[in-house]
Write a structure and sequence with these properties.
Largest interface: A-C, 113 and 122 residues
Largest sheet of chain C: 2 strands, antiparallel
CATH architecture of the largest domain in chain B: 3-Layer(aba) Sandwich
CATH superfamily of the largest domain in chain B: Periplasmic binding protein-like II
Order of helices and strands of chain C: HHEEHHHHHHHHHHHH
CATH class of the largest domain in chain B: Alpha Beta
Oligomer: heterotrimer
Strand order of the largest sheet of chain C: 1-2
Shape of chain C: flat
Number of strands of chain B: 14
Strand content of chain C: under 5%
CATH architecture of chain C: Orthogonal Bundle
Chains: A mainly alpha, B alpha/beta, C mainly alpha
Low-confidence stretches of chain C: 1-17
Number of helices of chain B: 20
Helix content of chain C: 55-70%
Amino acid sequence: MLDINAQPTTKLSRTKKGVYKQLIAHVCLIVLGITFLFPFVWMLSTALKPEAQIFKWPPEWIPDQFLWSNFPEALTFVPFGTYVINTLTICIWAMVGTCVSSALVAYGFAKIQWPGRNVLFMIMLSTMMLPSQVTMIPIFVIFKKIGWVGSYKPLIIPAFLGGAFFIFLLRQFFLTIPQELSEAAKIDGCSEFRTFWQIILPLARPAFATVALFTFMNNWNDFMGPLIYLSDEKMYTVSLGLQQFIGQYGTRWGMLMAASTVATLPIIILFFFAQKTFIQGISTTGIKG
Amino acid sequence: MKSTLKPFLSMVLILLMLAGLIACSSPGSPAAGQDGTKEDTSAPSSDSGKKGDGKAVEVTYWHMWTSDWKKLIDSLVDEFNQTHPGIHVTALSITGDANAKFLTAQAGGDPPDVMTQWNQIIPSWAEKGAIANLDPYIQADAPDLGEWMYPTVKEIGTYKGSMYAIPFSMNTLAMYYNKDILKEEGFDPEKPPATIQELDAMQDKLWKLDKRGFIQRVGYMPSGLTQWSTAFGGKWADEDGKPTATDPNNLATLEWFQSYAKKYDPTKVAAFNKSMSSNVNSAWSFLSGKQVFAMDGMWRLEDLKNYAPDLQYGVMTLPYPEGTGKPDGTWVNGNFNIIPEKAKHPKEAWEFILWLTGYHNEDWAAKMLTKGGWIPPSPKITEKQAYQDFMNEIPARKTFVDLLGSPNAKITPVIPVQQYYWDRAAKAEESVMTGNKDPKQALETLQKEVEEEIAKAGGK
Amino acid sequence: MSRSSAEVRPSVQVRSSRGPMSKIAKVNLRNGLLFVSPWLAGFAAFSLLPFLLSLYYSFTTYDVVSSPVWVGVDNFVQLFKDPLFWKSITNTMYYTLFSVPLGIVFGVALALLLNMKVRGMALYRTIFYLPSIVPVVASSVLWLWLFDPQFGLINGLLDAIGIEGPGWLVDPAWSKPALIVMGLWGVGGAMIIYLAGLQDIPQEMYESAQIDGAVWWQKIVYITLPMLSPVIFFNLIMGLIGSFQYFTQAYIITSGGPNDSTLFYSLYLYKNAFSYFHMGYASAMAWILFLLIMAVTLLVFKSSARWVFYGGER
């Protein structure tokens, strides 16, 4: 069933074998898929339940009647539209910044030989190893000193200076690209930058889609950053907005779930586009192994 | 290869320009609406607060209220701004992790002018010098403020003889009971158990287990050690602020807890407790009739009204052990307003919180507190007609409010390690209820832990 | 350190630092520094100082509000005597030991499954990624319900096949396994990275293997896994770093209980820093963790020469 790339020999057996294979694959995917659907389906079903039913125990998966009013209520209970625009602003800038800067840095770490490279790379990795709880306050103080607190700058500008996670990820992908390719390009007179731009980047499209998706998602869901850097409710983000449904004296579950459902939509849409690049990676572009 | 530099530099230049663009533009663009015309529901801004004339002092106010309470707070702030032309308060709802937000802001030298916090933070923040001693303000503007409040409330806000926090709203705890089930099982629903012994005696009839031994219905399952210790006369710290976790009455409380854990399979009980009262606050088993007794606060009355309108219930004060116990025991906590030491406009902030607490403003406060379903910090507010009407509407409310004046109303010891103490006390209870430790051991461990924590905090 | 450090490209002659550099080496150094300059700038501006400061704090008592006071190695001495510190280390090790390997196996398997040429694959992929994007505030309640010993779906299924399910989140012995299982639902993120990695494997390799008569599992063992190893390596390192710093679910769903069985290192650190005002103590904890992760990472890097295969280096 895991025979991903088999090229059957005869046409007859191909179709028959193919049908079985497809069937088995679908069964596996559907069974597993149902398990993975739980969180989302549960979120959606709670969003559609009347409040009295949310507390039913044991929980019921399918609402007695679909109650759509939680959606309009949730989206007007907090200024959700404003939050979405704010969050999109942060996410898109951070996405652009991270993609460009991380690609440059990853190339420097993966494809150019220079003394000190490995030491710097290790230092870069080590920045992820110290728990952020203890650097949070000093970083805040730095941003405060340069007057960025209270704006989106602390949430966006560092993205233009590369993210360690993404640099590492892209480095791994760049390393799998045959060295002969870039060397051939250089022999043809390509500069380092052109090699990066014209040879390496196009080959790493799936990796880029991943980086874009992940940065978007991280920033979309980021809670701590907006919480400590923003002090104006008009600038709040979606993740801060979701907290507005959780109260000291009880949570508005129906609205929380409705708002959460809406909040996942942009990521689902982005994922749909990103995963398209997985269909035709470089394997079909004819690069020799 | 020579030509790498140029395109590269242009690339970096573009990056820097983009970054710079954001760096320069963002204070204006996203916040542009601040003085704009659009009235946002999230932003309390009123006409009197227009900064155009530059007269009004800007006071930043952080609170932790969300959902409907946040909207209520916003409207209160609006009201203040309208009635106080010289001051403009801007409210900000801090959700999720208020401590982290406050501490980073404090470290960055830019805390809010005023903040509403749970009372647990008062002693530690006062000890660290993070919040201002309010005595000078009180002496100037409200010398009788201490006597104006309920004694317990004053006690919570006082650290080392000075007042550091002004109350906003209070909570007490009492016992809910399900009249329908009591009747069904042959008890008089109008005569709930007054003592622990009576409560214990009822349990056999009230609990229901299924074939697998899983719990179908709970009579009562003790939880909340520190809260229940009030009915047993327990004591958590002496006059010098030294912890007294191993106090015999604390032990008696925990032994009573353990008697239930022994009678009913601890893991099953823990399982039931987890299903029913998870810390994400999902379902309250009392609502669905799966628990006959439940200790909780006044706010649950709203849940009962909304989610179980047909349930017949009563509210009584905590049962106490016959002979040695303390009737009308309750544990009091509340929301308090504090002014950070580094606040930029402490005077205006003080004016705001004194107004908000309802001092010499009792009629207004009585009305305001009914809107949030809160318990007043002062008997002077409670006696106002608006609040009396509120209590008469649902008589159970009176039980909670009266408890605040009870001589056996107790508070968390006002010592800097309070947060740690209560965290670990909850763990001590947990270790007994899961059969991991016996009560004596658990309290001894707790005592040791807290003593070490005190050494750690104040040792150097 | 890594395989790539040991190897010196024949065409690029990097001399020892004392000798004069060849022109090509100079150009490479300049280009290398240029390319990594954005990160260098960011590191210098926003990371270096906080790093050094937290190291300094670890030798002080610091409550954030007042200035830090130097106490030497006191924090470290106290830490080694603190039973909760050891408890949190044990919990974290337990979690790491299971969640990282399981995450890799499930992630790779799922990616292979989702890389097949089957109709509706886009939909399947989305479904498997969905749990990773449901906000934690929404999903945490679901986990409590799924793992509920009495009414939960998981124990319901176990009951159907005649097994009495454990107490999961309320049983100190089963709370960590519950969190590990929970973590597997979020394997979608790693799966995406593996999927992206699978696209880099040249089709021709499978074709020639086919001609040589290789069956499916041979193709996986001899082609797919080696070709995927750089990405597995990445997920291994990031998985280690992530699980050593495991925090969110323990904070929101179990808050350390029952009986401190889910008091993970980062959770205890966080409580010390922001609830109990021991930023110095927390910083000491952070640096111990830092050294621990660093040591493990270096070991993995060392071992990588033997099992990570970079197409670009042949």
